[in-house]
Amino acid sequence: MSTIPKRIKVGPFRYKVTYRTPILADDNTRLSGQCDHTNLRIVLDHTSKKPRQFETFIHEALHAMDYVAHTDLREEQVAQLSMVLTAFLLDNGFIPAEGEQAA
Hints:
- This protein is of the alpha+beta class.
- The chain has one domain (7-91): Zincin-like, CATH 3.30.2010.
- It is built from 2 helices and 6 strands.
- Helix 1 packs across helix 2.
- The longest helix has 20 residues, at 50-69.
C-alpha cells in the first residue's frame, strides 16, 4: 500500500494530513476521516488498517477537490468515486498494493 503523504496540494491550497482517534462528527458519530477546509487539514483514523486508511485518504482528498472546484458533490457521490478511484489506482499499478513494491 502506498504511503499517504503528509501534505497534499489541492488547487492553490496545501492540506496537512494528520491522524487522530476518535474522529467524531457533529452528532458524535465516529468517522474514518474528515476534511477540514477552514484549517486545510485532512484527518485520518490512525487505528484503521492501511487499505481503509488509503481509501479514506482518497475520499477526503475528493472532498477537498470538491470544495476547491465548487462542484457540490453529494456524500454518496464522493463515497462512490473514492471506492472506484482507489480500486483503479491499485488495479492498474499506479500505486503498489500492500506488500508490493512500486514498478
